[in-house]
Amino acid sequence: MSPTLREKTAIVRRRHVLDAAIRVFAARGYHGATIRDISSEAGVSDGAIYTLFENKAALLLGMLDPLDERGAPEPLRPIDADLDVQGFVRELFRQRWQTLTPETLDVLRVVLSEALVDPSLREILMARVLTPALTLPEAQFSRFVAEGRLRPVDIPTLLRGVTGVFLGLVMLRLLGDPQTCQHWDDVPEQMSALLLGGLVPDGAGGETHDQD
Q1: CB-based contact 80:32 (threshold 8 Å)
Q2: Strand, helix or coil at 11?
């Protein structure tokens, strides 16, 4: 059933308040920001915010919504299951990278800093964002292995390694690394090429042998 006008209005109002909270948290930090700061940024009353969010912590959790692949307002488009390994990996990386908009990076800047010191938020971040990112592609990779199109690998460890590299690149972007910022849009293709082909050119060899 389609949402009613009232429901659509509430969704837009909630998104507006969350966008304001992201800007305020990014500028002042979570602990330095107040509901009054957020209401002023959003152009609404404090009471209007409390009708949508119980407290400042609920606002922080609401900021995770776009990062949750299972229930995001604009979920990732299903990847064509008939793609070959190369096509699937490239599309997977491209889709994930497209979610890292400037607004999403602002969310991560706030949430990651808080998650490092708040165990409860860390658990929520793992459950809503990282665990789906790690587990949703497992079935397709397992199918590739079963069909002989991918060599047998420890898929959970592989996906954690790839996710770790992506998070590292996100941190470099948040820290303002010039090389990462300049070549941000090239990352999906570079990562795909690295995972699929490795670093050693075909025919160049990569093994070293001990001298007698």
Answers
A1: no
A2: helix
* Stretch (H or E) spanning 42: helix 35-42
Provide the 10 A C-beta neighbour count for residue 158. Answer: 15
Does residue 38 surpass a pLDDT of 90?
Answer: yes
Contact (Cβ atoms closer than 8 angstroms) between residue 190 and residue 182: no
pLDDT tens per residue across span 166-179: 889 999 999 999 99
Q: Are 69 and 133 in contact (CB under 8 A)?
A: yes
What radius of gyration, in Å, describes the C-alpha atoms of the chain?
21
Residues 6 or more apart whose CB falls under 8 angstroms from that of 158 comprise: 141
Q: State how many domains the chain has.
A: 2
Residue 57 domain flag: yes
The phi, psi pair for 61, rounded to 5°, reads -65, -35
Task: Please answer whether residues 89 and 192 qualify as being in contact, where contact means their C-beta atoms are separated by less than 8 angstroms.
Answer: yes
Domain range enclosing 36? 5-62
- The DSSP symbol for 199 reads S
Residue type, 65: D
Residue 202 lies in a domain: no
Q: What is the pTM of this model?
A: 0.74
CB 60 within 8 A of CB 35: no
Q: Are residues 38 and 77 in the same domain?
A: no
Give the separation between CA 133 and CA 69, rounded to whole angstroms.
Answer: 7
Side-chain-side CA neighbours of residue 146 (13 Å): 6
Q: Indicate whether 83 belongs to any domain.
A: yes
Q: Are 26 and 106 in contact (CB under 8 A)?
A: yes
